[in-house]
Design a protein that fits this description.
single chain, 7-stranded mixed sheet, 18% strand, 5-stranded parallel sheet
């Protein structure tokens, strides 16, 4: 009797369970067509969207496909190849203004590195490009697209493993770049927390993740997740960071782990060549005169392509296939493009005028002319056209300091007295025309030359330029940015550049201009100041008698002598 009762109970339970699952299956079968129809509608929508394609932007059509297509960066590309091609590629930082080909160069150099002898890069080595300004992360470590994160089971969407209480590591860009190159654009904008995490990854070549929900003794955790937590995610890559900032703005810890490459700003001729190539690929004729105009107004290759794109639109509206001067003028005017100042030097030898050299933002050399006159006074030196003072520090703690260029002028006054050029009842006025802020000691040598020229009435050789810090005893000390300055002098049409002897190794590859290395200002004066007097810019009564040759240096240098 008991067995019959148990059998009836078992049949009843089985019937109830069967009815429950039967109803669930019917419910799912009714919902499945609706879900399938919804998915089909979304897939069809995606297919229709993918079928719509706009024309390829001109900027993409003119993007370099070979290293030979990258304009004006021969030295930078050579440095990149030396760092990345071969058996021991290194991390690298690329400095330079925007729109000059840093990203394209890095991508193309990797392709060449894959084919170099002994390279560790495999043929399918990835090139992962990310923008540091978009690398947003959650401070609770929920999401980190750069380094990687852990999806703990408490978070929505943890899936079946999450339902079992299993944390799931999610790889970031550093892991996706494993075995290849991680190109981090605008690396100078990376959050300090992210920067510290990245430095740790560069050291360990792996990403170690943590989770309070991970139990190494839990046998239900899949083996690959155990492996991720115990050994970390692989992240053996080479970092290529690009930035428009100066090296001083980049983390010293990062710079110490990377080689550094400097891409220069493009010249107007190089920008014009990019514009001509863009017009040709777009199917429009662009005359040399319009190419020159675009080169003067566009600061980089990207701006040149944008100008050509807009000019082509104007021509298309009127049914033309040529870009006219009126098109370029209208685009330049409506886009508020500013003309770049001409760097062509006036090679006329003049009294009280000298060619100095400077380095602008983006490590671009520039010609820095100076002028000086003698006026009645009380022996003072006046300097105009420069930043007299600047503020350093943050709000609440400000430090004001005088321009170091102003300090160089004080050194020049002392030096003039030491060399026998006492001002007496005269003032020396040195001016930097152009209104560009000037700071740094490298203008000292040029100040000394232009001051002696104004005092003695001897003209300065207009084919020469000089850079270097000056001491009160007449020594010419080393300065920065010498290669860029020498290149600026060459582009300006000058033939000789005087630099400090301590900088001689930086100009071994200089071509097209004679580089003269000096250690004393007397050597510069004897070579740059021409014999005789020309009409002075100050009253004759104030002009001193010609100084003896000894005052300009005991051993004048013969013309053309290189002291290096």
């Amino acid at each position: 009797m008991l067995q019959i009762v148990l059998l009836v109970i078992q049949l009843a339970v089985t019937l109830v369970v069967g009815v429950y699952f039967f109803r669930q299956l019917r419910k799912e079968s009714r919902n499945e067509p609706a879900a399938r129809r919804e998915s089909s509608r979304e897939m069809e929508k995606l297919r229709r969207m993918r079928a719509i394609r706009l024309s390829e932007p001109l900027a993409e059509r003119v993007r370099p496909t070979t290293l030979a297509d990258v304009v004006g960066q021969e030295d930078g590309i050579r440095s990149l190849k030396a760092i990345l091609c071969g058996a021991n590629p290194q991390h690298v930082l690329i400095y330079g203004p925007p729109g000059i080909g840093k990203t394209c160069a890095a991508r193309l150099v990797l392709e060449e590195a894959k084919q170099s002898a002994g390279t560790p890069f495999l043929p399918d080595a990835p090139f992962i490009e990310v923008d540091a300004t978009c690398m947003r992360f959650d401070e609770r470590a929920i999401a980190d697209p750069l380094i990687g994160s852990v999806h703990d089971p408490i978070y929505q969407g943890a899936g079946q493993l999450g339902a079992q209480g299993v944390p799931q590591p999610k790889p970031g860009a550093v892991t996706r770049a494993h075995g290849g190159v991680l190109f981090l654009d605008e690396i100078g904008e990376l959050h300090p927390v992210q920067m510290n995490k990245l430095l740790k990854v560069l050291e360990d070549r792996r990403v170690m993740l943590e989770s309070a929900y991970y139990d190494p003794e839990d046998a239900t955790v899949p083996r690959h997740i155990h492996e991720m937590f115990e050994e970390g995610l692989p992240a053996d890559f080479r970092l290529v960071g690009a930035t428009t900032r100066s090296p001083n703005d980049i983390s010293p810890a990062l710079r110490s782990r990377c080689m550094e490459v400097f891409f220069r700003a493009l010249t107007p001729e190089e920008v014009g060549a990019i514009a001509a190539g863009a017009a040709q690929r777009a199917g429009y004729a662009l005359k040399d005169r319009e190419v020159e105009t675009i080169g003067r107004y566009a600061a980089c290759g990207r701006e040149a392509v944008n100008i050509v794109q807009m000019c082509a639109g104007l021509a298309q509206m009127e049914g033309r296939t040529d870009i006219t001067a009126e098109d370029v003028s209208w685009v330049v005017s409506s886009g508020h493009y500013a003309a770049r100042p001409s760097q062509s030097a006036d090679t006329t030898s003049q009294v009280g005028v000298v060619h100095g050299l400077a380095v602008l933002d983006g490590h671009q050399g520039a010609l820095l002319d100076m002028e000086a006159v003698i006026t009645p006074g009380s022996g003072q030196v006046h300097v105009t056209g420069i930043v007299e003072e600047e503020e350093l520090g943050q709000a609440g703690h400000r430090l004001r300091r005088k321009s170091t260029a102003r300090g160089s002028a004080e050194n020049v006054r002392t030096l003039l007295a030491e060399m026998g050029y006492a001002l007496g009842e005269r003032d020396l006025h040195i001016n930097f025309p152009g209104g560009a802020p000037v700071d740094g000691p490298s203008a000292g040598a040029a100040m000394a030359v232009v001051a002696v020229s104004a005092i003695t009435g001897r003209p300065v050789d207009g084919h020469c330029a000089v850079t270097g810090e000056i001491t009160m005893h007449g020594a010419v000390k080393a300065v920065g940015g010498v290669p860029a300055k020498v290149e600026a002098a060459r582009q300006a049409g000058l033939t000789r550049v005087f630099i400090p002897r301590e900088n001689d190794a930086e100009t071994l590859h200089a071509a097209g201009v004679e580089v003269v290395c000096v250690s004393e200002i007397a050597q510069v004066l004897s070579s740059m100041l021409l014999p005789g007097e020309s009409a002075p810019s100050h009253p004759t009564s104030l002009r001193p008698e010609p100084m003896p040759a000894a005052a300009l240096g005991e051993n004048p240098l013969p013309a053309g002598t290189t002291l290096s």
